[in-house]
Specification:
With 295 residues, the chain is α+β, with helices and mostly antiparallel strands. It folds into 2 domains: 222 residues, Bira Bifunctional Protein, Domain 2 (BirA Bifunctional Protein, domain 2, 2-Layer Sandwich), CATH 3.30.930.10; 49 residues, SH3 type barrels (Roll), CATH 2.30.30. It is 26% helix and 30% strand. The strands form 2 sheets. The chain has a 7-stranded mixed beta sheet, with helices on both faces. Strands 11-10-9-8-12 form a 5-stranded antiparallel beta sheet. The longest helix has 22 residues. The radius of gyration is 18 Å and the shape is globular. The protein starts with 15 loop residues before the first helix and ends in a 5-residue tail after the last strand.
């Protein structure tokens, strides 16, 4: 871990007493580990799940770090954050579904993040929205990212790691860092410029944000396990950031197709009304942009 830990009385540290009050059931029934620094919370939870017995269904576990030295997002992009400025967490759980039954999970988690935000004192003018397949936007800026990986699977169960990063403060500084780290970032493009929760909640803090997320996930995960993405679909459609707008589907920087984003189906696949006809797009290594953006 970190050889020079952050000040133990740093004001941004998570207040475990308050967390236990706000996230009553998860704080009691989940394993919640909070560390100063690690390489990647997803990698840490992945290791723990792989060490567990296949087919077992332990209670969910959450790992939170104030700093990550090897944080990453989708397609290996760097995920950067200064201590106290972002909530960096990963949740590990075993869902009683085969791996092919996890379609739409990242979208369902996106709706859970929105539910968490709804329980925080955001400005009434704030406009949280969802960008397919795994981003949460705030006023067209990227507020949060979701990265889902699997540790093991059997015919009846899959161990999943759900990584969530939420920006709380320092959006301007973060935008410069992300642009430098990823090189391919387009700061002026909607959905790519970082946004911070402090824009809508000046007193944004890690404790309340974590509690809200734990509560939302505690409700969403059992429901997804039982019913899949279907019950989350309408919530996702209602928050679809680019509904009815022309989008471009990219693969390794090359345009694959463009058309009108019309929504998602019951398995979470993106629906595009393209010139060649309706197109259904699964998640994977494809990138979605607004049509006005160019590679």
């Amino acid at each position: 871990m970190n050889s020079t830990p952050f000040a133990p009385d740093a004001p941004w540290r998570i207040d475990r007493t308050r967390l236990a009050t706000l996230a009553e059931r998860p704080a009691r029934d989940w394993t919640i580990d909070i560390v100063d620094e690690t390489g990647s919370t997803n990698a840490d939870v992945m290791e723990q799940l792989r060490a567990s017995r296949r087919g077992s269904t332990p209670a969910p576990l959450a790992r939170v770090a104030y700093s990550q030295t090897a944080g990453r997002g989708r397609r290996g992009r760097a995920w950067l954050a200064e201590p106290g400025n972002a909530l960096l967490m990963s949740v590990g759980c075993v869902l009683k579904r085969p791996i092919e039954g996890l379609s739409g999970l990242s979208l369902a988690i996106g709706t859970a993040v929105l539910d968490a935000l709804a329980h925080l004192p955001l400005s009434p003018s704030a406009r949280p929205a969802l960008k397919w397949p795994n981003d949460v936007l705030l006023d067209d800026g990227k507020l949060a990212g979701i990265l889902i990986e699997t540790a093991w699977n059997t015919p009846n169960a899959t161990a999943v790691v759900i990584g969530i990063g939420v920006n709380l403060h320092g959006a301007e500084q973060l935008a410069a860092q992300v642009d430098d780290a990823n090189r391919q970032a387009t700061p002026s493009a909607p959905g790519t410029t970082p946004a911070a929760l402090a824009r809508a909640w000046p007193d944004a803090n890690l404790t309340d944000t974590l509690a809200a997320l734990l509560n939302a996930l505690d409700a969403a995960l059992p429901r997804f396990e039982t019913e899949g993405f279907r019950p989350f679909r309408q919530r996702w459609l209602d928050a679809h950031a680019w509904a009815g707008r022309e989008v471009v589907l990219m693969d390794q920087g090359m345009e694959v197709t463009r058309g009108i984003a019309s929504g998602v189906d019951e398995s979470g696949q993106l629906l595009i009304d393209a010139p060649e006809g309706p197109r259904t797009v699964t998640t994977g290594e494809l990138t979605l942009r607004l049509a006005r953006e160019r590679p």
